[in-house]
């Protein structure tokens, strides 16, 4: 197979899992069933064990032993979902990739619809949640606020209510692989890549088992990550807050001078003084904090550490679909009918 030619007959489902030993045995048969329904496509499933501590790896070994399409990647420790996904996508190599959560919140039954869009020529088919079942109002509300802020502050398009549940065409995947920044706000990275993207609405299901690893504090940090990775507006904000306070100070100064000239200078002004000092002090601290956020990220990037380390890589025994046997000759036949985003 010509390495320079994108493969339109191969799809790899990439699943990052941390402590999903209960959910994975329920999820895999569903993925398998969905892939079985795809004609003319060779499929693989790649599970990334992101430093699980609950026997996820053993469960995955079991799945791989009974399914020759499954490849496994085990990271040396928990690197976080973004790094785990990156590790998985790096292994895909050729063809398209479909990203799925391990907890069943992204229904694998929709994979054929994603593939259909890809065949129509879309590069980035992303799932958009029309319902977030099993999520409280707090999570929904903060999520909505986050997307609004993101839209205002950043020029990179980050579609609302969109996660990592998506299909990436070979060229999108190749583009993404070139973004090696350490602080990985995936939705932003997908948006940055661009190409032809289309939303696919779906109902987000509750988890199959276990609990979310993204609590409020982690979500807050996630939001910080998103904003600082894709916008420098907060850095500029300090300038404008400073300018505004300076204007206010000049106005207040004029008032004080005029008042002193007209009314004399009785000893006063304690409260005003305290207010001004405290206000300026806190504005400066906030501005310093913002600079610190960016500086810290710069420091992390400067260290140039790898994004993840691999403990074990276990390739699939065979890259065949459930219904079809190895179809290498059919590869080129499909390349013409499935544009996969080459035109664009
Ligand atoms: N995940 C991961 N590494 C982590 C945390 C989570 O690979 O450090 C995986 C997790 O197993 C799941 C997906 O990322 O497949 C989404 O995580 P979770 O369900 O906890 O997040 P939520 O759906 O609540 O946003
Ligand atoms: Mg989840």
Give structural notes:
By secondary structure, the protein is of the alpha/beta class. It has two domains: 10-214 and 305-339, Spore Coat Polysaccharide Biosynthesis Protein SpsA, Chain A; 233-303. The protein has helices spanning 24-36, 56-66, 81-92, 111-120, 137-153, 170-177, 186-193, 216-230, 233-263, 270-303, 330-337, and strands spanning 10-17, 42-49, 70-75, 96-101, 124-132, 162-168, 197-204, 310-314. An eight-stranded mixed β-sheet has the order 7-5-6-4-1-2-3-8, sandwiched between helices. Magnesium ion (MG) binds at residues 101, 103, 105, 207, 212.
Annotate the secondary structure layout.
Elements: E1 10-17, H1 24-36, E2 42-49, H2 56-66, E3 70-75, H3 81-92, E4 96-101, H4 111-120, E5 124-132, H5 137-153, E6 162-168, H6 170-177, H7 186-193, E7 197-204, H8 216-230, H9 233-263, H10 270-303, E8 310-314, H11 330-337
Helix pairs in contact: 5-8, 9-10
This protein binds uridine-5'-diphosphate and magnesium ion.
Can you describe this structure in just a few lines?
This protein is an alpha/beta fold and 344 residues long. It is built from 11 helices and 8 strands. It folds into 2 domains: 240 residues, Spore Coat Polysaccharide Biosynthesis Protein SpsA, Chain A; 71 residues.
CATH superfamily of the largest domain: Spore Coat Polysaccharide Biosynthesis Protein SpsA, Chain A
Bound molecules: uridine-5'-diphosphate, magnesium ion
Helix content: 40-55%
How much of the sequence lies in strands comes to 15-25%
**Beta strands, count:** 8
How many domain regions?
A: 2
Helix/strand order, N-terminal first: EHEHEHEHEHEHHEHHHEH
Outline = elongated
């Amino acid at each position: 197979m010509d390495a320079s030619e994108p493969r339109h007959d191969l799809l790899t489902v990439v699943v990052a899992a941390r402590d999903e030993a209960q959910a994975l045995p329920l999820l895999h048969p569903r993925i398998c069933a969905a892939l079985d329904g795809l004609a003319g496509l060779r499929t693989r499933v790649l599970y990334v064990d992101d430093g699980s501590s609950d026997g996820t790896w053993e469960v995955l070994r079991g799945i791989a032993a009974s399914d020759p399409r499954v490849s496994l990647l085990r990271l040396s420790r928990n690197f976080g979902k973004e790094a785990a996904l990156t590790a998985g996508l790096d292994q895909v190599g050729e063809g398209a990739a479909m990203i799925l959560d391990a907890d069943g919140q992204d229904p694998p039954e929709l994979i054929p619809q994603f593939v259909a869009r890809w065949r129509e020529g879309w590069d980035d088919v992303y799932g958009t949640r029309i319902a977030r079942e099993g999520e409280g109002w707090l999570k929904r509300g903060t999520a909505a606020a986050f997307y609004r802020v993101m839209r205002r502050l950043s020029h990179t398009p980050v579609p609302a209510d969109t996660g990592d549940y998506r299909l990436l065409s070979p060229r999108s995947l190749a583009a993404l692989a070139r973004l090696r920044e350490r602080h990985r706000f995936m939705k932003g990275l997908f948006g940055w890549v661009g190409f032809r993207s289309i939303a696919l609405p779906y109902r987000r299901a509750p988890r199959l088992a276990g609990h979310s690893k993204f609590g409020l504090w982690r979500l807050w940090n996630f939001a910080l990550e998103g904003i600082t990775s894709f916008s420098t507006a907060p850095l500029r904000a300090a300038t404008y807050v400073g300018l505004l306070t300076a204007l206010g100070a000049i106005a207040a100064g004029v008032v004080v001078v005029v008042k002193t000239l007209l009314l004399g200078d009785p000893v006063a002004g304690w409260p005003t003084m305290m207010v001004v000092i405290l206000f300026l002090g806190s504005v400066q601290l906030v501005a310093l904090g913002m600079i610190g956020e960016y500086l810290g990220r710069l420091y992390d990037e400067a260290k140039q550490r790898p994004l993840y380390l691999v403990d074990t890589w276990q390739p699939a025994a065979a890259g065949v679909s459930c219904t079809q046997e190895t179809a290498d000759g059919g590869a080129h036949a499909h390349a013409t009918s499935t544009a996969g985003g080459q035109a664009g």
